[in-house]
Amino acid sequence: MAILSTPASTVRLASQGRPLKEHLFRIALLASLAIAMIFLVVLLVYVVTQGWSRLDLNLIQNFPSLRAVNAATAGVLSGIMGTLWVVALTALMALPTGVLAAVYLEEYADKTKWYNRLIELNIANLAAVPSIVYGILGLGVISRGFGLGPSVITGAITLSLLVLPIVIIAAREAIKSVPPSIREGSLALGATQWQTIWRQVLPASVPGIATGSILALSRAIGEAAPFLLLGAATLVRFNPDGLDSSFSVLPVQIYNLITNSRPEVQVVGAAAIVVLLAILLLMNSVAIWLRNRYQKRW
Amino acid sequence: MTSGQRRLSAVATAAFVVSLAAACGGGGNSAATSPEASAPSSAGASEPAAGLSGEIKIDGSSTVAPLISVASEAFGEEQPQVKVPVGTSGTGGGFEKFCAGETDISNASRPIKDEEKTLCEGKGIKFTELTVATDALTVVVPKENTWAKCLTTAQLKKMWEPAAEGKVKTWKDVDAKFPAEPLKLYGPGADSGTFDYFTDEINGEEGASRKDYSPSENDNDIVNGVAGAKGGLGYFGFTYYEENMDKLTAVEVDSGSGCVAPSVEAAQGGKYTPLARSLFVYPSTTAVKRPEVAAFLDYLSANIGSLAKEAKFIPLNAEQEAKLKSDITALKAG
């Protein structure tokens, strides 16, 4: 941002007699950016061309089908609905918990105490744990231990645990970025710590928290590994109708469709990838919009 | 309310509404789903009572899943209130869930193992074995391969046995008559019933295989791997070969009484030894007491021929089909 906002005249002046090294560095920067962009474009073009013939309303209106008679109308409705159920429940469980944990760690925890430092270290480590490990946890403890079975609620709790460390870290960063002067001002005017947090700190950190949370949920939406372990079924021809319902999620269905031996089924898988990408891009756009809309500068 | 507070509650409300809308959308849309193309349902011998509801959880072998998925869909068109989700955790993974009481029916591409039986007995889960289709485990090579039209079981063992690891690297190592083309092996991973069956029949011990091959639970990977390497060789179920005949050649197998190509007739008639195998489903006897599960099994036995044809499986012969029917009748009575 800072470089872009430098006046053009200054840039022109500076570029005169610019050493070769600087040119090379610039090219290296552009090349790195190009690599990322090219792969994204190639991926998008590839899946859209692969799935183009089945990118229609049937895809989001009908249930999956392996029968040849339904080849032209099979969709991934149960996967979309399963994903929405699980992610909505995950948001309801993980966001409040994550934000409250972050408030504790930033505003209340005494960082000189060893147990608080241990908690911080553990949260940072948990954020890096592979999702399949959470799948094992979900299967062993939540599904079998608590007896919830391979249901929507099991999937949502597992995903909540998966995104919780990410939400906590994002929320902490957002809370940390609120200048201490705001807190001090509030306290000096006689507000209690609770009032300071609720009326000053949290509202000011909402954009950061919201952005971080949506990005964490975007990660959750793309997860297939924990669900494969939990036993989300691959052929599901009904939508979830409650917390204890069987379900499938979009990534699991995509995995199953793509690995099918019949080309017409693989096409549905490619089209489903486009749907998943569309949902992800939509969520990320909301995150960017929230950030820009509510960002505050001190 | 301060402006900051208003903003906080606005965002919180927005997030809440989005979540709720998503959750409610799930419930609301289920009623409005458009009907699927109706299928040519073959006349069932015993038409189950209309208006059943409930859920039949099925998991297990990915080899059997295409057949049971088609059955689940076709049954769902007759009984729209019965939910029949089908999972593909593999034969071993399926039995693990079945014996934990999480599923009602387990698909298997090999008979249940003794330790799995013990596991089920420990949980008080009783079951019956039903043979629903036949499979001819097919050994495939790419079209470019001109030398291996027929392989003996001894040659296959030489390629796949644990002792071959790091030693048998080219086709010449298998048989001096073959060219010195590098041998590239592809096969299913250790969680697969196909792997268990192949290693048992060819290497003489279940699970004993060389480890330096490319394993994949995804049969498409095996197809592409073998088709892309001149010296490639792999194995999987007959259905996959049928769908990829343009890319692959099936090797004839000689178990001592001449070369036999894998085919529907050879598998049904028991000539394709030792690689023809039965595919099973294991319903739990407790689950069969539920009317929807009994109705599903009735549907399966009444339509097994047409279902197998639609899913491109090798159908049961008349004798096996009669046995399936009597097994299901006995299961319901018991």
Automatic annotation (TrEMBL), chain A:
Domain ABC transmembrane type-1: 80-286
Entries under PROSITE patterns matching the protein: ABC_TM1 (PS50928)
Top-rank taxon, per record: Bacteria
SUPFAM superfamilies, per the entry: MetI-like (SSF161098)
BP terms from Gene Ontology: phosphate ion transmembrane transport
Transmembrane parts of this sequence: 27-48, 84-105, 126-146, 152-171, 220-238, 267-290
Known role: Part of the binding-protein-dependent transport system for phosphate; probably responsible for the translocation of the substrate across the membrane.
Name this protein carries in UniProt: Phosphate transport system permease protein PstA
TrEMBL record, chain B:
Domain PBP stretches: 46-300
Low complexity composition-biased segments: 30-52
Molecular-function GO terms, alphabetical: phosphate ion binding
Entry keywords, A to Z: Phosphate transport, Signal, Transport
TM segment ranges: none
Keyword Signal included in the entry's annotation: yes
Domain of life: Bacteria
GO biological process, one term: phosphate ion transport
Region listing for Disordered, in residue ranges: 29-52
Signal peptide: 1-23
SUPFAM superfamilies: Periplasmic binding protein-like II (SSF53850)
Family the entry assigns: Belongs to the PstS family.
Function, as annotated: Involved in the system for phosphate transport across the cytoplasmic membrane.
Protein name per UniProt: Phosphate-binding protein
Species per Swiss-Prot/TrEMBL record: Nonomuraea endophytica
